[in-house]
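User: I'm curious whether this sequence folds into something compact or stays loose and floppy. Could you predict its structure so I can see for myself?
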Amino acid sequence: MRHQKAGLKLNRTSSHRNAMFRNMVTSLFKYDRIRTTDKKAKGLRRWADNLVTLAKRGDLHARRQALAIVREKDVVHKLFEEAQDRFGAKSGGYTRIVRLGRRPGDAAPVSLIELVAAQPEKKKKTRKKKAAPADKKVEAPASPTVEEKPVEAPGSKSKEEAEAKAEDEVTEQPEDSEPADSEKTASKKEEGQPSD
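Assistant: Here's the prediction. I'll summarize afterward.
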């Protein structure tokens, strides 16, 4: 019976297996992804998750425990620096295994094991409120004083003259009705034309 014998043997001695997984986990944290067989990737996942948990703890004892496993100091320092930012919100599942197919030669099933990148939090889109034009206070331009009269181009009419002319046209011609015959004759007499 094989009770309480966790882990994969992979047809290797314990020293060979430990050395292999130490090398693989060092490469995984150094390059963020490695390609290996399915069985080795599943065994490596346990080692990697354990090391990320140590890195998230972040104290000196955890750093020394990680240095006992990982082969390179630079990789451990990099892991401990970015562990909180990269894996802080997660409580497991720091690696992903993607199956790639079979290896030519021995037809062993090959997988890609990679560290899961932190997903940025999705921000809700907020609509900008449009300010009502009544809310905005627009300063009126200062009226010109006697000394500061605006210079007009020759041939152009001032606004006051244009408004007065428009008012005269409106009063002269009512829009609703046409002038009666008596009004037509009266207007012709004033002009000096004989009536029909």
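Summary: The longest helix spans residues 38-57. The longest strand covers residues 95-102.
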